Amino acid sequence: MKTIYKKLLFLLLFLPLSVLAQATLEGTVVDSKSNQPIPGVNVVIQGSASGTQTDFDGKYKLQKINKGDKIVFTFIGYTSQTITFNNQQTLNVSLADDANELKEVVVQVGYGTVKKKDATGAVALITAKDFNKGAILNVDGLLNGRAAGVVVTSSGTPGSDPVIRIRGGSSLLANNSPLIVVDGLPIDGGLSAINPNDIESFSILKDASATAIYGNRGSNGVILITTKKGSKKDIQVSFNTFSTLNTLARKVDVYNADEFRALITEKAPLKANLLGTSNTDWQDEIFSNSFTTDVNMSVLGNLFKTVPSRLTIGNTDNRGILDTSNFKRSTASISLNPSFFDNHLKVNLTGNYSYTFRQNANEGAIGSAISYDPTQSVYDPTSIYAGYTEWIVGGQPRGTSNPVSLLKETRNVGNQFRFFGNINIDYKFHFLPELRAIVNAGMEKQDGDGSVTVNPFSRSGFNNNPNLPTTQIGSYSESWFHNKNENLNAQLNYTKAFGKLNFDLLGGYEYTQKDYQNYYSGNRNLFGLGVNEEVREDIYTDPGNNLQAFFGRLNLGYNDKYLLTVNFRRDGSTRVSPVNKWANFPGVAFAWKMKEESFLKDSKTFSDLKLRLSYGETGQQDLGQSIAWIKKYSTSGNNYYQFGNEFVVISKPDGYNANLKWERKKNYNAGLDVAFIDNRLKASIDAYFSETIDLFANTKLGALQNLAVYGPTNIGSLETRGIDFSMNFDAVQKGNFTLGLNYNVTYNKIEITDIATNNDPQGGVGLGAFIQTHTIGLSPFSYRVYEQVYTADGKPMEGVFVDRNMDGKIDSSDQYNYKKPQADVTMGLMFSGTFYKNWDYAMAWRASIGNYVYDDVNASRAFLGTINDTFNQTINNSPVDYSTTSFIAASKQSDYYIKDASFLKLDNITLGYNFKSVFNTDKFSLRLYGGVQNVLTITDYKGIDPEVFNNGIDGTIFPRARMYLLGLNANF
After folding, report:
1. CB 271 within 8 A of CB 264
2. Is the pTM value of this prediction over 0.70?
3. Is residue 644 within 8 Å of residue 562, measured between CB atoms?
């Protein structure tokens, strides 16, 4: 008993001494490079539950610590440090960047992020090192040719938005463009108003397992754009500018003045008196060299040492090579990314503002320049039409208009003000750090106005309405629009590891409201002149589109080998009938990280090997008609009733479909990710198949069935199948020379499997003629033409076609389906690297194989009936293809005009020099670079450019300029 008392007494005496031996440690944790404090660093005593985090100033205070304890400092993105406590009162620590952590690639997915090595769907990540180099004026220029299965077609028109297709699209009537999401906000306004210098990365979701969580907007793929954010480092300033000389790369080959004189003298001698004495190249008159300038400056740093921030301003002035065309853009963007409550609350605030000015040239002048008589001069001092040479027959202007007048005497200008931005709040619960609440609220607002003025004394301002007091009326019209897109989504995300099982559950709700309003005045020069032009003046208010959804995603990972993702979204839209307003869109994906298995873990051949399998369903509600399912009335300037001298606008009932429902797309994908040579060579291959059912179709309605002749219905199906392959290879990594290769190739086939009207004519080319069709078993817009017969020497015989059904006559039943506008294979290849340490280079190629175009430039002009215009009693120039055919009349439905438009393009070459070694500091760098854009096109197609819009019909396009550039990047 006495022994026990002695032991208790000893403990009571020793306890205060042991307590007194415990100490308190204070200090600051900073970044080793910038020396800036790092908030949120975990400071813990190794082997115990005791610990704390650094505050906003990087300071910490750790209590109840004993001599010999090991203190561990950890923070994401930095190398951890372990330091033994030796009774210090103060311990300041510098953390260095974790190189391995920085190499861990993270990709954006729907409503979140995932490490690339853990991705289960077909997701392509395009970062700054993968971007196209050179004179990048629009966001699409960064992306073109850089991702497998993604085709970007851009016009030469300054400031125009591109056409983007992921795996070919999925609809016949509805929108085929992918959903664009910028920092969590789905946008509607296109990409041309966004500054490409603000872009940090693209994540492209291609299969339905990845896009299913976007439901009704994911059927054409999703492009997630991440913009650049602020920094916790010292203030950094980046200044970037370049200028380009823009030139015409190629012209349509037409007859020159002397050749045209000989042609008219031979083929239309009675009109030889109409020939002039000039030698005018009309394409030279409307196209000219121009200059583009682009200036951007960004400032980033840690505002008040607490708020990582970034501010960017930019200005672009792009004068087109077609006279009077111009695009100006001024942009400003801001990003604030503070954290609060020991990093439990993260806020990301982004705002983007742009002002754009466009002067739209009359692109009809391009067609006129091809056709106008080259023996005529541009100006005629005796002309009553603003001094321009014009064809005048019987005292009135006839035939082709003077192309220079079309440009100079029309002023078509527009202004657009656009703001989009959002606030993202991410809160990690203190009492349950595995649970996060995320709220994202954003808005996109577009306001624009424009006017078109036509000189009343020009040919374009001529008006021969007999009720007018004069023919010299001209035109003046105004327009404006107001568009708004509001988005709110809220999510709960629970993430926890249970031994070898990683569990990640996301649930959320999203609300989107889109509203549109626009105004058109009509020709105000006609107001009050008794031709009832005033009734065209109208403000149109769209009923808007409301989208609501509930969504969820479950990610499971076991033993870092087996990954399962399950998505689900329930979507509602006002674009479809209330009967079918809501629809469900599931998705599931599985991945097997084979490299982590025992039989491959120590493999020296494979650095990575992962198998992916997925299935998903998505929807489409973007029909283009706001409420095609509702009974409604409409008015227009053509619907009015006359009471004496007063005209009263009346309404008429429109057609509708009360049973309209969603298009639905089912998608299957199998992929393999592989890496070799210590991850220097990475490749991915995906095979996919998708089926779109309940296609939106504009079908003919039966008598007494509706109030319209044609209307939208859900009839038909479409299948897409193909293979994507992409590869990145750091081929050479030496001190004086590096070489990186980025290559991708895609085979894609689209086939109509069911349609309301088989052999449905498409692609009108005038006078009731069509040269395309929607036909079961073929690609959309496949060409349907007559098979041309040729002479022994290969010359087409006019009006002679193959009697394919051998019934002894040539009629529409002899037409056949021949070729298609979609490419079978598309490819992209980029070389980039450095040499002699300070020099850098890049070269980007693209290829398209198996795409055909309809050559409407020749089909509409290269025949005698146009050269000798007997209807207008004038003469017109022609492409030199007339010398090949000698056609007297148009033969527009001949397969002669279906041309192979496969091409290989060298998009850009850049060469730069970095003066970093001259300044001998990491805080300042200066890079000068030069290059050429649109360098080379190799193709058999004889037109201006084989890469055309309008589903493969090449009328006249605004040519893409060849651009010679000089630029400068400075960072300090």
Report:
1. yes
2. yes
3. no
